[in-house]
Amino acid sequence: MIDPQLPLVDIHRHLDGNIRPETIWDLATRHNIALPAKDLDELRPLCQIQDKTADLLAFLSRLDYGISVLADTDACYRIAYENMQDAKRAGLDYVELRFSPFYMAQSHQLNIADVVEATIAGCADGSRDFAIKHNLIGILSRTFGTDACTRELNGLLARKDHITALDLAGDELGYPAPLFTEHFKQARDAGWQITVHAGEADGPQSIWNAIELLGASRIGHCVAAKDDDRLLEYLVEHNIGVESCPTSNYQTATVVDTANHPMKGFLEAGVEVTLNTDDPGVSAIDIGDEYQVARDVIQLSDEQLRQIQINGVNQSFISATEKQQLF
Ligand code: ADE
Ligand code: ZN
C-alpha cells in the first residue's frame, strides 16, 4: 500500500491539530486549567472525532481543547517537539508542519512572536532527536479577521528564514481570499511559497482566488475543483498541487462519503494530487490510515498510490537537490 522503496511525506499537517490527548490532560493538570472531562478517558472523545461533524466550523471547534492548555511557550515547544516524534512514528521521511501562532497564543494571551520562536525550537530539536526532515508553514487564521492576521503575519515574518511558506486556514466562507491580498503580497515578497485552504467549505471561485489573488502554488483540499473543468485543466497546466485529506473531508462534511472523494478523478485528469492527514490528532488517524482509505475506499490502484507518494515529493517546498536526497 505504502511503497517502502519510495519516500513518504505529509505536506498538509497542522501541528496545532495534532496535540496528544495525554498531553492536553497533563498540561491542564499542571496549569490548573479546567476541561469539561473528569479524566483522560472522558476527554478523548471530545478532542478526537470518530464520525462526521456538522460542518468545517464544528470540526475546527474540536481543536480548541488542545489550544486551551497552551499556557506558556514551554507548552508550545512541547507540542512542536512531540509532533516531530509523532511524524517519525508514522513513518514519514519528510513533514511540512503548519501552525497558526495567533490561534496558539490566543487562549492565554501569549506573545505571538514568542510562540513562533518556541514552535521553531521544538521542531528543530525534535527534527534532530528523531532524525526526521521538516519544514514549517505559517498560517494566517482567517477566522479572527484581517487585523489579527496582520499581527500573525508580523510574528511569522520576525523569523522569516525559519518559515517556508504561508497558508490561509479557518473559516473559508466567512473570510474569503480577497480580504488577504496584501498579506500574501508581503509573504511572496519575503520569498515564501504559498499554499491556501480553498474549495473545502466554499466553491471553485475560492480556489481561483487563492491562485490568482494570493499566488498559491498548492491548494489545501481543493474538493470544489470537481465542479469546474476549466479549473482542473488549469491545475494540470500550471502544476498546482492538490493537498488531499480524505478523512478530514469526510469529518468536516466537505464530502458526503469518502468513497466518492474526487481525488481519484483529479489523478485521472493529470492533477498532481498528494495525500495528507490535516489534523491527525483530532481526526484520530495518521498517514498510514489515509493510504488505506485511498486504496480500500477510494479504490486507487497501486500505481496511483505510488504516483501519490512521488507527487508528495514533487510538491514539497524543498529544493530539487533536497527532493533527490529523499529517494
Ligand atoms: N485548520 C485546521 N484544519 C483545518 C481545515 N481542515 N480547514 C481549515 N482550517 C483548518
Ligand atoms: Zn488543513
TrEMBL record:
Species per Swiss-Prot/TrEMBL record: Alteromonas oceani
Protein name: adenosine deaminase
Primary enzyme class: hydrolase
Gene name for this UniProt entry: add
Annotated GO MF terms: hydrolase activity
NCBIfam families: aden_deam, PRK09358.1-1
Annotated family: Belongs to the metallo-dependent hydrolases superfamily. Adenosine and AMP deaminases family.
UniProt EC number: 3.5.4.4
UniProt keyword Magnesium present: no
Record keywords: Hydrolase, Metal-binding, Zinc
Domain of life: Bacteria
Entry cofactors: Zn(2+)
TM ranges: none
All residue ranges annotated as the Adenosine deaminase domain in the record: 7-327
Pfam family, one: A_deaminase
